[in-house]
Amino acid sequence: MLPLDDYVPYLLNRAGARIAASFSDEVRPFGITLQMWRALAALTDRDGQTVGELSGRTAIEISTLSRVLDGLQRRKLVERKRAEDDGRVVTLYLTPAGRTMTRRVIPIAERYERVAIAGLSARDVATLKRLLRELYANMDKLCANRAASDS
Amino acid sequence: MLPLDDYVPYLLNRAGARIAASFSDEVRPFGITLQMWRALAALTDRDGQTVGELSGRTAIEISTLSRVLDGLQRRKLVERKRAEDDGRVVTLYLTPAGRTMTRRVIPIAERYERVAIAGLSARDVATLKRLLRELYANMDKLCANRAASDS
DNA sequence: AGCAAATATTTGCATTTGCAAATATCGTGA
DNA sequence: TCACGATATTTGCAAATGCAAATATTTGCT
After folding, report:
1. pLDDT per position as a tens digit, B112-129
2. Residues of A in contact with B131 (CB under 8 A)
3. Of B13, B25, B128, which has the smallest distance from its Cβ to A128's Cβ?
4. Interface contact flag, A113 B61, Cβ < 8 Å
5. Could you tell me the distance in Å between the CA of residue A151 and the C1' of nucleotide C2?
6. Do residues A127 and B131 touch, judged by C-beta distance below 8 A?
7. What pLDDT does residue B67 have?
8. Hey, are the CB atoms on B128 and A131 less than 8 Å from each other?
9. Angle at A125 between CA A119 and CA A128, to 5 degrees
């Protein structure tokens, strides 16, 4: 049979959905959505990324991301620049207001990290992070294979 | 600063989004969505659940779930029954067609489990499952606290 | 140089989502 | 028993999402 509580994708989805819902509530007062925050955070981490890179890093579907960026741009938190060397590519930069927004939200994000891993040992947390990264890499490989076999 | 690749909610969201997107592609040919599958799987695990219970178990927002159930009912995969002892409650049952659908999709789900955890030791997998369950419980506590303080 | 294929991003359109309000039923205390 | 608050589910409506097609630019081939 199907032991649901022992099935990794289910556990992952469920935990992810719960934390996403809570965090959405937290950033709403700032006038941004969870996806907007995820894009902002990824841009804070590294400036000047392209839309495609950002999509890969955040796992936000690229056309969705394009509209998330519309919102961020309208709110003057992010700037889009057409790259000079390759006119197809759009590079993304935080505005000063975007940086301010990030500074304000980071404490909340840090609180969520603490709440999420409450009661876990440092060793467990390190393991969890490593495993989530490996899992992501595994799914990436699958995507690549599927893309290759579609052609 | 914000070491994004070391931040649990981000890693979780990212891995969850990626696996969800791939799995959606897999169940689409069966005419169902990922959320429909998650509901079906949870009902296979235990029959006769209420809408609220199912929402809690799947972390699908309850009004969304209500409409997911509309879809499942229209496809004759799930039946809604008003409970006899409490007229507010709706209990949910798989139809034979629902059970057939589940039987067909389970092999795909099992393949995804294998792909997701490829390269991880049995010990690591056990740890991952335990940690994901604890994390979910932690977020549940947070939700409960927030709900209490809102009143 | 010139054109077809490849790559990056955006947009059209239909579906899905979720907050808030509505609806339906139950439980409790006067 | 009759209101009134609590609980369970559904629905209204606006926003978010994602597939497929459109657009814009570059690269490779001749």
Report:
1. 999 999 999 999 999 999
2. 120, 124, 127-128
3. B128
4. no
5. 27
6. yes
7. 98
8. yes
9. 125
pLDDT band at A150 (very low <50, low <70, confident <90, very high): low
Whats the size of chain B, residue-wise? 151
Instruction: Say if residues A35 and A60 touch (Cβ distance below 8 Å).
Output: yes
What pLDDT score was predicted for residue B151?
Answer: 42
The protein residue nearest C7 (Cα–C1') is A88
Q: What is the pLDDT of residues B62-95, one digit of tens each?
A: 999 999 999 999 999 999 999 999 999 999 999 9
Q: Where are the domains of chain B?
A: 4-116, 123-151
HEC readout, chain B: CCCHHHCHHHHHHHHHHHHHHHHHHHHHHHCCCHHHHHHHHHHHHCCCEEHHHHHHHHCCCHHHHHHHHHHHHHCCCEEEEECCCCCCCEEEEECHHHHHHHHHHHHHHHHHHHHHCCCCCHHHHHHHHHHHHHHHHHHHHHHHHHHHHHC
> Can you name the residues that pair with A49 across neighbouring β-strands?
A92
pLDDT of residue B4: 86
User: Which tokens sit at B70?
Assistant: 């509309």
pLDDT at A151: 42
Q: Do residue A9 and residue B19 have CB atoms under 8 angstroms apart?
A: yes
Write down the architecture of domain B4-116 according to CATH: Orthogonal Bundle (1.10)
Judge whether residue B2 has pLDDT over 80: no
